[in-house]
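re: that chain from earlier
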Amino acid sequence: MTEYKLINPSDPYTFLAKTKESAALAVFLLGTLYGASPKDDNEEKRIPVFLFGGAEEWYRKEFGRSTEARLKAEKQNVADALLSFMYGSFEDRRRYEAALNAITDEEKKKVFMEEWQDGRTSMKNIGEYAHQLGEKLKGKVKCCIDDTTKVDT
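^ sequence. v structure.
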């Protein structure tokens, strides 16, 4: 797993992704006005911000296929990446993961995760939105993806 920070103009967020492709798909589902940078700052793993379009073209050049074609195959990895979104920096993630690992009660774990996300200063709750998308992709709530449609965000 690669640890990424979300490139955005507001609060810091980090997430984990199995591959650069699953990281790109997760970020693009949130919006192409975001990007991502890996913890090791490896230029080859970066996901650019696309303020003026070009995301699909970049994706095709980078991975040799369309986002729509690949989302279904990568659905599980993308869902995991979205569900791993956490408010805070790389160092905050270390403490967050330690706390989650210490909590054995699933309900208490859920409460802790929700309260942690409330630390943000922005009106936009990127972490909550990422988690909702992840739940949809996992099929835990009515999903918006099938063989013929894109995610409606």
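The radius of gyration is 15 Å.
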